[in-house]
Amino acid sequence: MTEDILIAEGLTKHFPVLGGFPFRRRVGAVQAVDGIDLTVRAGESFGLVGESGCGKSTTGRLLTRLLEPTAGRIHYRGRDITHATRKELAPVRSEIQMIFQDPYASLNPRQTVGRIVSGPMEINGIDPPGGRTARARELLETVGLNPEHYNRFPHEFSGGQRQRIGIARALALDPKVIVADEPVSALDVSIQAQVVNLLARLRRELGIAFVFIAHDLAVVRHFSQRVAVMYLGKIVEEGPRDDIYHRPRHPYTHALLSAVPDPDGDGGPVRERIRLAGDVPSPVQPPSGCRFRTRCWKARDVCAEVEPVLARADGSGPGHVSACHFPEPPTVERATEVILDPALDPSSPAGD
Ligand SMILES: Nc1ncnc2c1ncn2[C@@H]1O[C@H](COP(=O)(O)OP(=O)(O)OP(=O)(O)O)[C@@H](O)[C@H]1O
């Protein structure tokens, strides 16, 4: 059975909001991530999607322990690492790596590519057989770069090549998990597929688990075996990739999917364009009950009163869960009519 390599339980990050004069004090909190559960299995590709500001990057940084959680627990290979000290974390840190959206910002412009890639080995005292230089050259080749460019500087490379350098650096410590935070968002569309294909190959050949963070369901579609959809600090739906794309159960997932021109390339199940009413509410004061209700065309009174929990509905596929009081029935393949604004729906008390 595949190992559950990285588990988050009730993971929460609230950033304090300071105000007042002359003495600044805590007046509230940005509820960036609010009690999410996630399980990443060894060697799998797990997609985390949602609009800008919904807490994806914060989740990635919590999973890699770059941020300290406000509450909740993180287990890596059966070990609770939530409050592990720097020293205790050192071996884990090397096994859980992160790659970032902006490859240029994350590479030291004054270091050669060879030094950038061999740096993590040096810091962690790793001496591979054949030496660090040989290993760094090998890694450059693995990610599709010319090892002869070992002595060049980041500015001499294109955006896609820089992202490859970042990936080679992440591979230097033989990670078991890589959290990739919007790794292709800053790249030209023509280059995006090449980098996604590279990550897919690395997953297959090296057995690395990937948490792939993206705001674009189309990108995640081609890479992820399982997908979780985030909205305002919560996971609203999670399941096997095909269930999410063919049988979305949460209205928010429907809306996100409808923004993908052709999610499957085969005329897909959700074709209507859903334009959500209003803006994403502030994570400082999220709506009561279901956080999505203020933009949801299906919202009823109960949605303001009771927070829906991620739950498996009868008949849904294994592990396909949705946090909605009124999820789509599992058999629905096609959203035929969509009321865009609750105020336009005469049958909805939320529109009164
Ligand atoms: N250090 C911080 N201090 C205060 N608020 C923060 C901090 N980091 C993130 N936030 C807030 O937390 C919320 C979630 O941010 P996060 O970057 O995790 O979202 P995201 O889904 O990754 O969005 P994006 O794709 O734009 O990066 C946002 O409202 C953001 O402004």
From TrEMBL:
UniProt cross-references to Gene3D superfamilies, sorted A to Z: P-loop containing nucleotide triphosphate hydrolases
Key words, A-Z: ATP-binding, Nucleotide-binding, Transport
Family: Belongs to the ABC transporter superfamily.
Upper lineage: Bacteria, Bacillati, Actinomycetota, Actinomycetes, Kitasatosporales
Gene Ontology molecular-function annotations: ATP binding; ATP hydrolysis activity
Parts of the chain that traverse the membrane: none
This protein's name: Dipeptide/oligopeptide/nickel ABC transporter ATP-binding protein
Any GO BP annotation: transmembrane transport
Family matches, as SUPFAM superfamilies: P-loop containing nucleoside triphosphate hydrolases (SSF52540)
One Pfam family in the UniProt entry: ABC_tran
Span of domain ABC transporter: 6-257
Superkingdom as given in the UniProt entry: Bacteria
SMART domains given in the database record: AAA
